[in-house]
Amino acid sequence: MSTAILTGTPVPGSPLEGDLRSLGFDVRTAPDAATALSLLASVPATDRVALVDQRFVGHLHALRLALTDPRFPAAAVTGALTARPEARAALAVALTTVTDTPATGRTDRAAEAPAARSGGAGVVTEAGQPATHTAPAASGLPLADRVAAAVEADGTPVQRPELGSLVAAVPDTPADRAQALDAVAAVDDEAVRLRTAVKARDGFFTTFCISPYSRYLARWCARRGLTPNQVTTASLLTALIAAGCAATGTRGGYVAAGLLLLFSFVLDCTDGQLARYSLQYSTMGAWLDATFDRAKEYAYYAGLAIGAARGGGSDDVWALALAAMVLQSVRHVVDFSFNEANHDATAAAATAGGKEDKAVVGTPTTALSSRLDSVGWTVWVRRMIVLPIGERWAMIAVLTALTTPRIVFYALLAGCAFAACYTTAGRVLRSVTRRAVRTDRAARALADLADTGPLAELTARAVRRPARALPGVLPLLIAFAGGAAAVSMAAFGPLDSPVLLLGALVYAVTSGIAVAHRMGGALDWLIPPVFRAAEYSTVLVLAARADVPGALPAAFGLVAAVAYHHYDTVYRIRGGTGAPPRALVRALGGHEGRTLLVTAIAAFSTAGSDLPTALTVLAVVVAVIALTESIRFWVSSGAPAVHDEGETA
User: What is the pLDDT of residues 604-615, one digit of tens each?
Assistant: First the structure.
């Protein structure tokens, strides 16, 4: 339940009360600050509360942005302030302070006054500028603005949404009010609401082929009471049906699969637009949207592999399907690791040096990127060649309908490999040419992304002191050498022999050495992707070499289960809730433990015949443990209400 407390001078004929009720607020009126404080105390501590000046003039969507967004503890625009339960104490303290402070005859510096936008009318205070109020209380800053300033001064952040052309004002005179009303009438807030429902930065295919109409589908869903989670689930079901059509192995099934995959992507865009349109952000929505994209794509890969085997040519493309999943998952962890490593590196450099580090924005790579961005068409080309989800799914859908699964996977592997080389090379150049200090938070995030298990932990403890002295890129080279040893032995070592375990053992030791130091080096963000590539590739190579029926599908299932655990780790870190508990990581063995276990299974299986069963059992165990803990966390945790924006373009 939400409660809005109207303060200030009543305005006859104002639609404000009706607007607030339409946003779900129970409206109460307080003639003065003392009454407002009393009303605030009477509202249950678990409810959202808003203070709104009765003279407020503005768009309904401006109020919606300020008062109903679930992501922020406190938010405000001119004349309106809201506080969620976690900010209620700060609101009460601020209101008490303001109640005891006269509102007239004082000069407020910007430190005391809110940095508010009026959209062209009303009271606006700019940072660093004095605002003198000398007349009656009505000519001073609105109570909501003074309380918002006091909340911020007390250390609670107050979100101030970017209004753009929307109006939020508290006019003092009839002439000012008429001017504000004219400004409101001049802007269609529904058009603004639709436009801002679409991500500001997206891929070419999404921007020009999906968003022009999916935003209207989002509005249609909102008006019928559908939630983003329902649309997300519909997108998943559509993609699973598409995978089932692809699994038929017929041309008609492939055509239907391509069309359904495209429609699934339309719904995938719609759920985020619906969340932004109606401000229905949620913890559950963040988890569903983040994980279902991967489930949809990888289930479709499996459908194509099944269809190829069932088709007229009986083509076995499971190795290609698994390779595509491995490549795509490693690409994602490269994105995640780089972003986490550099999220606050610039600020850290500025703090450490006492001034902003100019090298962060002055590297040759950054300069070239800026020059390219100055030419409009190159921006879209660069967004397309990295093969974001829109372009990737469009390519998969079209090729599925027109060609064969083998060609689909060849094109997918070639495109994703080029995109991976392009983006990783650019990030490596940025990392080695910039002078930035990595924060402890970033180093901790990289350590969590490494997914280190008990074996590597023991090694790390044993070599921690000498490992801290390892220079520059050496930890990455050690991790790479260990991963190469594991994959090479899996590829060329004798099957059904204990000798096969040597590579995995070397990998376990080198993994511990690589993470024994603080992961603050320029290229340490590459260590988690190296671990992902080594583990997934070892499973792929061993299953392919076994050459027994069912080995590759079982390996596909195992990698999918492990990848889910790794994606879940990423999205927990992204949401600011930290990595999964160490008990879960240890229960799953860590990346080096699973690699050693799979290698042992391959080494001691009887002529490979036991490998599919063993991999299937391991996949089920990993999936059950990871999913159980993940569902428990996302359903019951107090994670911030966010909505995942999907892959970067």
Answer: 886 556 899 999
Radius of gyration of the chain (CA): 28
Q: Which two tokens stand for residue 427?
A: 């990030």
Nearest to 363, CA basis, from 418, 437, 427, 422 = 427
Looking at residue 358, its pLDDT comes to 42
Please give the structure tokens belonging to residue 167.
């109006």
Quote the distance between the C-alpha of residue 15 and its chain's center: 37
C-alpha span between 369 and 176 (Å, rounded): 46
Helical residues (DSSP H) of 167-282, grouped into ranges: 174-185, 189-196, 204-205, 211-223, 228-246, 251-278
Helix 405-433 and helix 283-310, axial crossing angle in degrees, nearest 10: 140
Look at residues 133, 130, 129, 196 and name the one whose alpha carbon lies nearest to residue 165: 196
State the Cα–Cα distance between residues 233 and 287, nearest whole angstrom. Answer: 12
503 vs 275: CA distance, rounded Å: 48
pTM: 0.88
- Is residue 175's pLDDT more than 70? yes
Q: Quick one: which of 336, 90, 57, 329 has its CA closest to 173?
A: 57
pLDDT at 539: 98
Distance CA 90, CA 156 (A): 7
Burial class (CB in 10 A: 0-12, 13-18, 19+), 371: exposed
Contacts for 465 with CB less than 8 Å, ≥ 6 apart = none
Q: Show the beta-strand stretches assigned E in 271-364.
A: none
3-state secondary structure of 105: coil
